[in-house]
Amino acid sequence: MATYLYRLGRLSFRRRKLILAIWLAVLGLFGVGAATLSGPTSNDFTIPGTEAQQAQDLLSERFGDSSAGGAEARVVFAAPDGEKLTDPENKAAVSRTVADLKSGPQVSEVSDPLDGTINDAGTIAYARVSFKVPAGQIAEADREALLHATETGRESGLRVEAGGDALEAEPEQGLSEVIGFGVAAVVLTITFGSLVAAGLPLLTAILAVAVTMTGITIASGFFDLGSSTSTLALMLGIAVSIDYALFIVSRYRHELALGRRSEEAAARAVGTAGSAVTFAGLTVLVALTALAVVNIPVLTEMGLAAAGAVAVAVLIALTLLPAMLGFTGRRILGRAGRRSRDIEADGERPTMSLRWVRLISRRPVLILVTAVAGLLLIAVPALDLRLGLPGDNMAAPDTTQRKAYDLVTEGFGAGYNGPLLVVVDAADSAQPQAAAALAAESIKALPGVVSVSPPTFNDANNTAMLQVTPATAPDSTETTDLVHTIRAGNDMLRERTGAELAITGTTAVTIDIAAKMGGALLPYLGVIVVLAFLLLTVLFRSLLVPLKAILGFLLSVVATFGAVVAVFQWGWLSDLIGVDQTGPIVSLLPVILIGIVFGLAMDYEVFLVSRMREEHVHGAAPTEAVIKGFAHSARVVTAAAIIMISVFAGFILAPDALIKSIGFALAAAILLDAFVVRMTIVPAVMTLLGRRAWALPRWLDRILPNVDVEGDRLSVEEPPDEPPVRPELVGAGR
After folding, report:
1. Cα 75 from Cα 149, distance rounded (Å)
2. DSSP element (H, E) containing 600
3. Residue-level pLDDT at 147
4. Which 3 state secondary structure label does DSSP give 113?
């Protein structure tokens, strides 16, 4: 592989104008497509194969799409202290507000809050506002009209708040990516000591992200994409684009420092560091595309979009970056090299990284045990992990959604915020009315049920809907148990009447997603671990090194889960990162986190250990290879990790709960994996393994392809024909 990439790097360097023109043409073409072919995104979840989704589909078939797929808002009214909503003036104010709510063009129905949904004290009531379209298709003008209608009641002295999925606007991009780019620019400038060297990774990252985002925008015109799809791709695209370019640019400058011509240096940088970039990108692609195993469309979309971002980043790093190096030439070293830093030459200098790895090599067991124990301690809160979907109960306390939720809880009880929708399919029953009545009676007799509405039948009189109000909050374990208990009664109903029941609604969907996520974790882990093990075995020609890499990843993940639970569920440091409300962890997060962190963790494994293998292949003793390989690559990996942490941490500022938690989780995961696992545990384990780290059965050695990631075959290529840059100039400015 190194030879092919060497030739690609040389070709890109020589044909730099053509390569740049091609990428600019691609960007222009995608830009035009994004402007003309884009479509709307959605916040809707579909979970094929679950009971909640099957019940949702049955409702759409038997009652019409609006009954199952339309968005809903809940407008809550509270009378002033000492008054009731039934007082003449307050009653008139409620009527005016309801009239305003009905004026929305996408509104299909508004219930009367004073007829059936008012509490016994007459102080709190709520109106259900049903829309003709799903939440993702509600125009912003309709949301504003709904909120404007609430002002009608407030102006009359009532307290009026609104919640529900109809108010869920698509997440907007804020300053997250700007912060990430800003921090990356500072880190790159400090690392390289050259504005030209720092600017190239940023420039190529901007182009890569632009191509990816316009591509996703085009795809939205042909596929139903989730509103969070582009954010995840943006998050990963920025991080990996900068990191991949950083590794190649640093190797290019190292080759220049050795005295090679610019063209030869670029070709060798792509042949060596580019091989590591290719395999690192492949591991990320494997992890992201494997999200399809979970069989939840929104996860598949997010995974494929993010995988596209990574693929674009790899292609640009291997083609456009060497072309840009052709434009900069030796100017990338700065003025006569005085302000330049060859960050891969640290293996010969007593730097902090060299001192650190020598300390590890002297006390590998002590440091290994300490690092593993620390990660396991951080992982302890993960034992209390609870999954759910963000709802009005997770909104900030000062939002109208959270105020509406609290008012309903105060006036009626927490269960009214998450009623269950029971569907009785009586198509095969001789007595549909009796079947629905039996279902209602059996459910009402269960502990934890406050009320059951009378059955509502469709026109064909073969399907009924029952609304069940639990006594407990939607995200409580008691409500989950109630859902399972109701479902367990399906066998009895089928035997006695021939009818079947199913449960749907937001609460049931949340429960089913959590269950499906839990069931998918092991198969998903199995897929990515096996595929990544095969890739790393080919790359490193070893069995123990890939095994160590995967075990280290598992340590990083469980520790990250512990940190996420401590912050988002327990509330530790929640004020520091802007978590307004604690609660269950978003159900999608564990699978997303495992997929992305696995790929990114393998990035650092590849970059760090490939340099150790390079030293080993070139004749260094086992411990010496670990020390030299670590010292050469540690500064690069450190800079890459700081950049990636900063990019992900910037998304903690996002208002969306899913994006905020993903940003925090990924930043924490990279912090733990890069600095504890890869830069502490890995050299300790490699030191303990010695030559056994590179052991490979002979039969396997014969059949495995030799990808030559260390670039050993390039040693016969053109030797240096320029004098090396003097060390005192290369290292100046440290």
Report:
1. 10
2. helix 589-617
3. 86
4. coil
- Spatial contact of 405 and 392, defined as CB atoms under 8 Å apart: yes
pTM: 0.79
Q: Do domains 1-41+172-341 and 420-504 have the same CATH topology?
A: no
Output the pLDDT for position 181: 74
Question: So where are the chain's domains?
Answer: 1-41+172-341, 62-167, 350-384+537-700, 420-504
CA 404, 405, 406, 410 torsion-angle sign: positive
294: Cβ–Cβ under 8 A, 6 or more apart, which residues?
300, 516, 517, 520, 524, 591
Task: List pLDDT tens digits, range 649-681.
Answer: 887 877 666 678 888 998 999 999 999 999 999
Rg (CA), the chain: 30
Domain 420-504 has CATH 3.30.70.1320: yes
For residues 329 and 322, give the distance between their C-alpha atoms in angstroms, rounded to a whole number: 10
For β-strands 387-388 and 585-586, DSSP reports them as parallel
CB 503 within 8 A of CB 53: no
Alpha helix stretches (DSSP H) within 260-347: 262-289, 297-318, 320-328
What is the CA angle 546-552-553, rounded to 5? 90
pLDDT band with cut points at 50, 70 and 90 for residue 728: very low
Comparing CA positions, the residue from 325, 409, 346 lying closest to residue 637 is 346
Tell the CATH superfamily of the 1-41+172-341 domain. Answer: Multidrug efflux transporter AcrB transmembrane domain (1.20.1640.10)
In the predicted model, is pLDDT for residue 338 greater than 60? no
- The CA distances from residue 355 to 14, 165, 316, 615, 627, in Å, are 41, 56, 35, 18, 9
Q: Are 194 and 332 in contact (CB under 8 A)?
A: yes
3-state secondary structure 607-653: HHHHHHHHHHHCCCCHHHHHHHHHHHHHHHHHHHHHHHHHHHHHHHH
Q: Return the CATH number of the domain spanning residue range 350-384+537-700.
A: 1.20.1640.10
Pairing of strands 463-470, 449-452: antiparallel
| C-alpha pair distances (Å), 586 with each of 299, 331, 389, 415 | 13, 48, 5, 20
Q: Please report which helix (H) or strand (E) contains residue 408, including its range.
A: helix 400-411
How far is 541 from 637, CA to CA, in rounded Å?
22
Residue 50, classed as helix, strand or coil, is coil
Q: Which residues contact 19 (CB under 8 A, 6 or more apart)?
A: 12, 319, 320, 323
**Residues near 217 by beta carbon (within 8 Å), at least 6 away in sequence:** 33, 34, 37, 38, 230
pLDDT digits (tens, 9 = 90+) for 231-281: 778 878 888 898 899 889 988 988 888 888 999 999 999 988 888 889 888
CB 659 within 8 A of CB 638: no
- Predicted local confidence at residue 730, as pLDDT: 42
Would you state the pLDDT for residue 76?
Answer: 93
Q: How far is CA 435 from the centre of its chain?
A: 44
CATH of domain 62-167: 3.30.70.1320
> Residues with Cβ < 8 Å from 283, sequence gap 6 or more?
532, 535, 536, 598, 599, 602, 603, 606
Q: At a CB cut-off of 8 Å and minimum separation 6, what does 375 contact?
A: 555, 556, 558, 559, 672, 676, 677
CA triple 520-521-523, angle to 5 deg? 70
Does the structure show a pLDDT above 60 at 719?
Answer: no
pLDDT (average), residues 332-342: 57
**Gap between the Cα atoms of 211 and 374, Å rounded:** 41
Taking the C-alpha atoms of residue 681 and residue 691, their distance in angstroms, rounded to an integer, is: 17
- Which H, E and C letters describe 158-204, residue by residue? CEEEEECHHHCCCCCCCCHHHHHHHHHHHHHHHHHCCHHHHHHHHHH
